[in-house]
Specification:
Layout (H helix, E strand, L loop, with lengths): L1 E5 L5 E7 L2 H4 L5 H14 L59 H17 L3 E4 L9 H10 L7 E5 L4 H7 L5 E5 L5 H6 L2 E5 L2 H12 L1
Parallel strand pairs: 1-3, 3-6, 4-5, 4-6
Antiparallel strand pairs: 1-2
Helix pairs in contact: 2-3, 4-5
Length: 211
């Protein structure tokens, strides 16, 4: 499979880059995507919610009223869950929501998410570039060049680049990630994927290691 390579001005350079059909030509596995996104979101849950049960509420232990003769239901404690300010029955307690997922499943999920972007023409290969200094305007101009001003976008780099990362930090709809840090959730969340030409080689190496 061949993909066109664009420059930072959003123009086709005329170059083509060959990608591995055995990897990027697979049928996307939506169930693997579901499991990986589920794990990502579960692992990011704080799990710190907590309420007090009856025995944890600090209040008087004196019986509210006499047992009989009032004409109403008996009541023995202000800590009862049926009373305002009382404890909660079976309320939430701190817990860990994270769970493990097989590396091969995660790998298939990431690859499937990338294939979805390829099939929907939302996968753009860009010539490697760098900025002389961090400026938000650099990324704003880049988005205009590719007509993705109002679209959530993700730029995938082969390695850390502080100038590009710092230039994008003030923009809510533009993220920058190293190829080693990409995950299924971030890929799917982005409407457009911008990928450095040199990143493709690192992607193929990463997927081949697990497969």
């Amino acid at each position: 499979m061949e993909l066109a390579v664009y420059n930072i001005q959003g123009k086709d350079t005329g170059k083509k880059v060959q990608i591995n059909d055995q990897l990027f030509g697979i049928e996307p596995n939506d169930h693997a995507i579901y499991l990986d996104v589920k794990q990502f979101m579960a692992n990011n849950r704080q799990g710190t919610s907590q309420t007090k049960e009856k025995n944890e509420v600090i209040a008087s232990t004196k019986k509210i009223k006499k047992q009989k003769g009032t004409g109403t239901a008996r009541a023995g404690s202000v800590k009862s869950p049926t009373r305002k300010g009382g404890g909660r029955t079976f309320g939430p307690k701190p817990r860990d929501y994270s769970f493990k997922l097989n590396k091969k499943v995660k790998n298939i999920a990431r690859l499937s998410a990338l294939v979805h972007k390829l099939k929907s023409d939302n996968f753009i290969v860009i010539e490697d570039f760098d900025f002389e200094q961090p400026k938000t305007k650099n990324i704003v101009d880049l988005k205009k060049n590719f007509n993705i001003d109002n679209k959530k976008s993700l730029l995938i780099l082969p390695n850390q680049n502080n100038n590009i990362y710092l230039s994008s930090r003030n923009l809510k709809d533009f993220d920058v990630l190293n190829v080693s840090a990409i995950n299924t959730y971030e890929i799917l969340k982005a409407q457009k994927l911008l990928v450095f030409e040199s990143t493709l080689e690192f992607m193929e190496q990463s997927f081949n290691k697990v497969n």
